[in-house]
Amino acid sequence: MTATLPETTGITGQMIIAGAHVRGSGQPVRAFNPATGETLEPAYHYGDSSHVDAACSAAAEAFAAYRATTAEQRAQFLEAIAANIEAVKDAIIARATAESGLPTARITGEVGRTTGQLRLFAGVLREGSWNHAVIDPAQPDRQPAPRPDIRQRSIALGPVAVFGASNFPLAFSVAGGDTASALAAGCPVVVKGHDAHPGTSELVGRAVTDAVAAAGLPAGTFSLLFGDGPDLGTTLVTDPRIKAVGFTGSRSGGTALVAAAAARPEPIPVYAEMSSINPVFLLDGALATRGAQLGEAFVASLTMGSGQFCTNPGLVIAVDGPGLDGFVAAARDALTGSPATPMLTPGIARSYATGVDALTQHAELVGRGQPGDSECACHAALFTTDAATFLKSEALQAEVFGSSSLIVRCKDAAEMRTVASTIEGQLTATVHADESDYASAGELLPLLELKAGRILFDGWPTGVEVGHAMVHGGPYPATSDSRTTSVGARAIERFLRPVSYQNVPKALLPSAIADGNPDKIWRRVDGQLTHD
Ligand code: NAP
């Protein structure tokens, strides 16, 4: 069955290369509504290497002028993108809901998150600490040798390739966090849109392109391509004009791109957010006082959005006993009643089913949600095992993307800590603790710091606040570079690099490190932070 969305969407099935709407030459791809089984028009034809070349060439050409814009100009540009997205919000919500099968309320929230991220980076630009402006004034009389005048600031890396994520058609896609932070840094962006939501990508791509034109920026500041990952995606990442990559998706896709980037004659950083099972530690006191309540809340987090969150709680760890039994019983009851909801694509639904089958071979089934009759239905699953079995099994530690989780029963708190020390790197680690658990939690905390980008108490990992203090990152395989975050203000740092200016004539110094502080930003002068 094929459906056409209302005319208001006005989408054409074309890529956008430096402001020009270009029809691809390759195989046609149509979006698919996983909730209804409908195929959505129009067809998007894949681009080829000539399109990658055109986008990268325009991005490289745009770079000098774009990075020379002031922070205020870039802030206004990001705000204009946000306003343009809001102006076509209804069309975006209709198309993204159809392409993802996600509820309208979720997509509406994601539009707000996306525009909020763009505005956050506008604020970051105006605040100025991203410059990392440092001045070590000359000490001509220093003995035994004089000190030269040395100043430091951060500059943009160059054109950035961004891979749109399947599971956030807006907030981690065409104008999502990677694009917003790269544009904020002064980097032109070439996006490879995700096949799961090409119409949404085109609508948002047009919002960005219109803002580029209205701001008088070089057209190559932004391009949007469609194509096969291993083919067009790899060509993009290995193009010598691309200087960094932002990616969210599978471990296999992320590691392939990291390898391709590392094998270039000029290797470049790939910021890939990949695989995480987000352990949740339930401590004894919390289980004793509110085990059943925790069980219900856990299932709500597990099944939200068919579990298609990188922060989905895929692992629960607790000491065996009546408290945990109460948690498991409540979770089983809640899960059994949970309806099947559509997953984003038939491929993701198939890999979910394969992952659940693998867990069935190695762990005991606690319960399943309601089955569904469509090929994309997510039939939620909960398993349990003991810590000794878990620690020996690679299969039990693998991410199953979707509403699937495993409860690991430990014999004591020491075994719980062994599990915490053994698991792979994670985006999040959650602890549920009462005051009586603080001694035990205090022993766990330093172990979790080494494993996760975000540690949270008495909540659930799904739902990532976009702000200045957020870290959405973590050691491999959560990401390919644990020193960074893909959400929040610090995401801009991925696309910057420091430069020192030694004895550069004052007339030639960039404003961020010029005498008199013309940008009015915080700077470290002779070791002290100052606004003067
Ligand atoms: P994906 O397969 O990794 O694809 C993400 C993007 O990377 C797509 O544009 C894809 O292009 C491209 N790509 C994939 N493999 C590539 C390769 N070897 N070389 C170059 N480019 C490559 O992720 P997905 O489509 O979102 O979902 C598939 C699976 O990813 C899920 O089942 C889940 O396991 C995982 N996932 C994890 C997260 C997370 O946050 N942890 C989020 C989303 C998905 P093509 O589409 O053309 O292949």
TrEMBL record:
Molecular function terms, GO-annotated: 2,5-dioxovalerate dehydrogenase (NADP+) activity
EC number: 1.2.1.26
Domain of life, source organism: Bacteria
Keyword Nucleotidyltransferase belongs to the record: no
Keywords linked to the UniProt accession: Oxidoreductase
Catalytic class of the enzyme: oxidoreductase
CDD domains recorded: ALDH_KGSADH
PANTHER family reported for this sequence: ALDEHYDE DEHYDROGENASE-RELATED, SUCCINATE-SEMIALDEHYDE DEHYDROGENASE, MITOCHONDRIAL
Protein name in the entry: 2,5-dioxovalerate dehydrogenase
Species this chain originates from: Mycolicibacterium flavescens
